[in-house]
Each structure stands twice: as structure tokens, then as C-alpha cells.
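ENTRY TYPE: paired fold submission
RECORD: A
CONTENT: sequence, then C-alpha cells
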Amino acid sequence: MIRHELELFFNALRFFTRLPIPRWVGHSTDLLNHSARYFPLVGWLVGMTGAAVFWLASLALPPTLAVALSMVATISLTGAFHEDGFGDACDGFGGGWAREQILAIMKDSRIGAYGTIGLVAILGIKFLALLEMGDGTVPVALVVAHPLSRFASTTLIRMLDYVREHQPDETARAKPLAHRLSRSELAIAALFGCAPLLLLTGLEALGVIPLVAIVTFCAARYFRRRIGGYTGDCLGATQQLTEVAIYIALNFAWLFEEAEDLSSSI
């Protein structure tokens, strides 16, 4: 039982990062299907890596470089997996009108104007949002945002249909994830994805949870309306959008707390 769960986790780790995994870990469509429950747990590793790099860099470098290096670390660890999906989604939904046209554009590995602009915008917002936080709050934000945003993305596998399931596209990266999550699998993903919220105050969590839910719901509704479900690029786009939403919500909450502290001290 424990060995099987470890095998599922290592399959998730292999799928979403460039980290080596033990040789005894098997690989199959079925294992990857059921490894979705551990996607948010992979986010813990990514978030803690970014937090560690930021903390170490901030000991000797200005905040701008520390934030930039932490972003580079998380992108390198994942091979820009989610960023690539976001860029493809921007190209597909920005440049396509009909369902088949959108899917064809997203399948093209080349990046277009919409993808380039989208990536510059979202990476810039991430950088500025993290830079506006204090040195002590950036690591918390990273550890919260990466698991929770991956859980938000994982919920789409439960909520929507995989639109390429009946297409002869064996190269699609999310094809093995066409299996819809069971309630128990979603509960495990929720446990790992929402656990970092315990690092926040009630006010901070109150700001993060509704915004993540709204962004996820709007993304799911948009994908269903435009293409009838999700693709791997849609999952990556949702992860990126909710990660940014978390940083924005935390900025707002921390500014509100600072204003309250200032007013109470007067």
C-alpha cells in the first residue's frame, strides 16, 4: 500500500519536475492517471525550493535579485511546464475562434504573439507582486501559492472532460490524465493543496480562498464554453492564473493588516 502510494507520488514528480526518481518506480498510463492526487504535494517541493533560494539569496543580494533567482529556480525545477501551457493557451484562445482551430494552435509548439505577451505579463506580475512583499513574507507566499495553485488546476480534471480523449493525439502531454479524479483522490489533493493555508492568518486565508475559487471557476467555465473541456495547456494556464491570484490576495491582505496596525498605533 505504502509502496504503491510512493510510486504514484514519484510518477507525479517525474511528470512535473526534472528531478531524478528511484529506478524501481514503474511507469504506465494508469499510474500517471492516479498520481494526480499528489500534484499539489509536488507543489510543496517547488514552493519550498523557491523559498529556500529566495532566503539564501536575500542574505547577500537585494530583494529584486532574490525574487528573480527564486523564480528562475522554480521554473528550472519544473522545466517551465506550467508556463509553457499558459503560453500555448494564450496563443490558442487568443488567436483561435472555432474549437478545432483553438486546439490546433495550442498543439503547435511554436509560440506566437499572444503567448509571448501573456508570458511577459504574467511573469512580470509575479515578480512585482513578490517584490512588494517583505523579505519575511515571500517564502510564505511561495510555499502557499505553489501547492494551492496546483490543487486549483487539479480540480479541472474532476470538473471537466478531457477534450482530446477521442482524438488520435498520442503526443498530448495531458492525455494520460484523461481519467477523471474520484472523490477520494480529489480529497487527497485538497489535503495537500490546502494545508499551506495554515501558515496564513484568518484574514489572509479569507482573501486567498475566494479569489482562487473565483479564478478557477471562471477558467473552467471559459474552457468549457470555448472548447468543451480542458487540455494540458488549460491546466497549466489555470495553475499560473491562480498562483498570481494568490500573490495579489496576499499583497492586499498584508497591506490591510499594515494599515490596521498603523491606525491602532496612532
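RECORD: B
CONTENT: sequence, then C-alpha cells
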Amino acid sequence: MTEDETIAQILRKTRVIALVGWSPKPDRPSHRVAAYLVQRGYRVIPVNPGQAGQIALGETVRASLSEISGHVDMVDIFRRSEEVGPVVDEALAQFPELGCIWMQLGVRDDAAAARAMARGVAVVVNRCPAIEIPRLGL
């Protein structure tokens, strides 16, 4: 399977996305991508400790992944690369059936990616679903 086919498959199977690093500021990429994903029919759970408890995208903003109960298909990470490791570890601990760790444009942590892949979780690095969805015609 090509990388494009893998990404398309992930995006087709995903329904619930925890978006770590969501911003309430409309000009921030994390805000725009989250809004786009909701528009495309995904349930997006925003994660930002500074905004926890507020309502955004029809969801309560969570302080951390550990505050989310229920199934999450994808964790989309809008954090600096050096902050990815703990996010991935929390995601793996919190969501036993997690399908994908998605690291946004410019975000990369090879060790965290390897830990996720070792658990059978797909990893997408340095890409944006809001770019990939229209590019792949999804």
C-alpha cells in the first residue's frame, strides 16, 4: 500500500479526533484545522489545558488526553516536536484501540513514533489532514 493509500484509509476510518494543542484563536492553524475537520463530519475533541472547561466545536475543551473517556480514533498533535513524546505516551495509555497518531506539519518525534508503531498504531508525520483530505479527494 502506498503512503497516500495508507493516509486515505486512516482518514476514512477515523471518526473521533482528539486535537492536542487546539487554540481558541481563529487565526491559529490548530483552530482552522479543527473547524475544517468538524465541517467534514469528524468529531473533534479539543485539548488545551489553558482553555479546559470551555465549549468549542460542540465539545468541552479538555486539559489532557486522560480527561477524555470513550473511544478516540486519532490523536492529532499541534505541539512542538520536543513535547510530542509525553503526548504519545498518554495517548497510548488512555486509548487502547487508538488507530493513529498524527503529527502536524513541522512536528516530528521518531522515538515516539516508534513506540506507537510498536503498539500497532499508525503514525503520520509532518502532514496536515486539512491538506490531505482535499489532496486525496476524500
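NOTES ON RECORD B: The first strand starts at residue 16 and ends at 20. The mean pLDDT is 97.
STATUS: closed
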